[in-house]
Amino acid sequence: MDSLQIMIEAIPTLIKGLNLTIQIAVVSIIAALIIGLVMGLISLSKNGWIRVISTIYVDLIRGTPLLIQILFIYFGIPAVVEIQIPALVAGIIAISINAGAYMTEIFRAGIESVDRGQMEAGRSLGFSYAQTMRLVILPQAVRRMIPAFVNQFTTAIKDTSILSSIGIAELTLQGQSIYAMNYRAFQILTVVAAFYFVIIYILSLVSRWLERRYAIK
After folding, report:
1. What pLDDT shows up at residue 28?
2. Average pLDDT score over residue span 7-25
3. What is the DSSP string of 151-200?
4. Between 171-182 and 185-213, two packed helices, what is the crossing angle to 10 degrees?
């Protein structure tokens, strides 16, 4: 069979995998944003005992491979609590927690990049700390963090390929299942790589545009 024909015939199945890849990445990055915001604010607390929560979380997650985190959630935790976690749920949890650690640092750095006088100005207007953070600090910080958010989304898309290790039929596993039947790994993996490249390249263009659009003058 002609190589081009093999690649073309594989596209519909790979598109299904790509759709699942994007869905997992979107859900995970939304969860990671929430985790990152909460832990980022905790990391800026004046209470050292509270800050240590964020420090331990970030160091633990960034200090261990994502694959181990996935396997721990899917195989490790159920072995202890005797509750089976669906593979898709386990995968989303793992990527969310992993990306959340990096989002924590993004939020912390973004908030700290805002001039401290902004907080003093907000408080002098009668705002509480929470109101000043919500209405004054975070809007300025998020503007600076948007390109980093896009970059982390790009990373989340690439990280979904590791979920093939627990049987989630995302793009990589779909490709593996195809060439396992037709033995045309080179052709199929070429298409898989092209799909990843196109999506990530589009996100890279978006990131560059956002960097120019929201550059701090």
Report:
1. 97
2. 94
3. HHHHHHHHHGGGGGGGT--SHHHHHHHHHHHH--HHHHHHHHHHHHHHHH
4. 160
**Nearest 10 degrees: Cα torsion 19, 23, 29, 34:** 170
CB-based contact 25:149 (threshold 8 Å): no
Task: Give me the pLDDT at residue 130, please.
Answer: 80
d(CA 4, CA 26): 32
DSSP annotation of 125: T
CB-based contacts of 93, cutoff 8 Å, min separation 6: 73, 85
pLDDT at 126: 80
Residue 65 has, within 13 A of its CA and on its CB side, a CA count of 5
Separation between Cα atoms, residue 63 and residue 192, nearest integer Å? 29
- Give CA–CA dist 32/38, Å, rounded: 10
Q: What is the DSSP string of 128-142?
A: -HHHHIIIIIHHHHH
Distance CA 131, CA 126 (A): 9
Query: Could you tell me if 210 and 147 are in contact, meaning their C-beta atoms sit under 8 angstroms apart?
Result: yes
Considering the chain, what is the average pLDDT of its residues?
90
Q: What is the pLDDT of residue 138?
A: 86
Q: Mind listing the pLDDT tens digit for each residue in 53-93?
A: 999 999 999 999 999 999 999 999 998 988 889 999 999 99
